[in-house]
């Protein structure tokens, strides 16, 4: 990655951003006409984009419930997005009011809205500026370390973010950096859009719709996404279409996001072992 990449983007209403386009899919109001135009271009070839966004949210909240029930009380929510409800902190704190969540994002609209509308959850939500392409900078941020104790198990959420990170910025290496920093018993959740079993003409049109955005949208094969979890233990049901996850919305879509939750094992092994307990 370019050394001069700043943690945050500059604000521009005329350049669509992933966060604001997603907000449009979800029916939010924190988007501009350029974002809506990009979203409409996607919906012309993939009308179920809002359904897929909702399915991704359902996956995110499902893995949060699983982690908090497994005893996790601290979350790092990478690419946290524009505030929406229910959110990670609300769902986690419903199970354990002392849960702490740190949100990380590089979009100025996300940062300002998250600061303006702090979560009302008792455990609390803190937002910090950060770019996932600089994982070491996020992990070294003193504000993160005030909230998160990396010597204790943590859940790192990287949901619908890495498809905005080009191969040149090494998505697998980014996840390795977080996984290395997590203590045993920690969890990593990832979802990303897949090219597997997807019409190549539709992929091209969607990629085109994001071409003028602040970040490209990159489709990856199921095998590529699966490889990001090495050498963690996948939690049942493994890597799956987010809409098919247990308690997911169950509506199949023509373009799919695949999601999985994995756990850092207590002892290092060199090959994938049996799945940990199920999230189903
Ligand atoms: C599609 S939204 C997903 C929001 C939330 N994680 C969810 O799944 O509902 C993608 C989010 O990732 C953020 N994002 C994209 N690239 C990023 C980067 N390089 N560093 C930090 N955040 C990024 C965007 O600003 C946006 O808020």
Automatic annotation (TrEMBL):
Q: Which residues form the signal peptide?
A: none
Q: Which Pfam families match?
A: Methyltransf_19
State the InterPro entries in the record.
SAM-dependent_MTases_sf, SAM_dep_MeTrfase_SAV2177_type
Q: What is the name of this protein?
A: S-adenosyl methyltransferase
């Amino acid at each position: 990655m370019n050394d001069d990449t700043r943690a945050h983007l500059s604000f521009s209403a005329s350049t669509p951003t992933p966060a604001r386009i997603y907000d449009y899919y979800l029916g939010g109001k924190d988007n501009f006409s350029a974002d809506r135009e990009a979203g409409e271009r996607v919906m012309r070839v993939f009308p179920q984009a809002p359904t897929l966004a909702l399915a991704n949210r359902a996956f995110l909240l499902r893995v949060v419930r699983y982690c908090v029930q497994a005893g996790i009380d601290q979350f790092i929510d990478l690419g946290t997005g524009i505030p929406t409800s229910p959110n990670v902190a609300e769902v986690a704190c419903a199970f354990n009011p002392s849960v702490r969540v740190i949100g990380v994002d590089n979009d100025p609209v996300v940062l300002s809205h998250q600061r303006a509308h702090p979560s009302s959850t008792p455990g609390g939500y803190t937002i910090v500026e950060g770019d996932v392409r600089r994982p070491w900078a996020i992990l070294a941020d003193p504000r993160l370390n005030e909230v998160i104790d990396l010597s204790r198990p943590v859940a790192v959420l990287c949901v619908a973010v890495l498809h905005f990170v080009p191969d040149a910025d090494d998505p697998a290496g980014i996840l390795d950096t977080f996984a290395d920093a997590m203590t045993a018993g920690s969890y990593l959740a990832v979802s990303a859009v897949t090219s597997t079993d997807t019409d190549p003409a539709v992929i091209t049109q969607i990629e085109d719709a994001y071409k003028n955005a602040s970040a490209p949208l990159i489709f990856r094969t199921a095998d590529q996404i699966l490889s990001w979890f090495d050498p963690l233990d996948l939690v049942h049901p493994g890597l799956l279409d987010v809409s098919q996850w247990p308690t997911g919305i169950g509506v199949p879509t023509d373009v799919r996001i695949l999601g999985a939750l994995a756990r850092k094992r207590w002892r290092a092994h060199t090959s994938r072992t049996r799945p940990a307990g199920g999230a189903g």
